[in-house]
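A sample copied in:

***
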Amino acid sequence: TIRHGGKKVGKVRDVFYSRKLGRTLSLAYLKRGAYEIGQQVVIDLPEGTLEARVEALGYPLAMNP
């Protein structure tokens, strides 16, 4: 579950490690109108919570052509 301001706004669909970027990325579905690029969200995990930032699809890959 992904939350923002205490409200459920989406769900993580896939998580993977990018060797090119050297970090873990995830793809998620977010409710329309419930997010903005750069917005901080909280991801609920079985072992706790994780803070994340909303980015446009493909944005991280464009940083390292």
About this structure: The two ends are 31 Å apart (CA to CA).
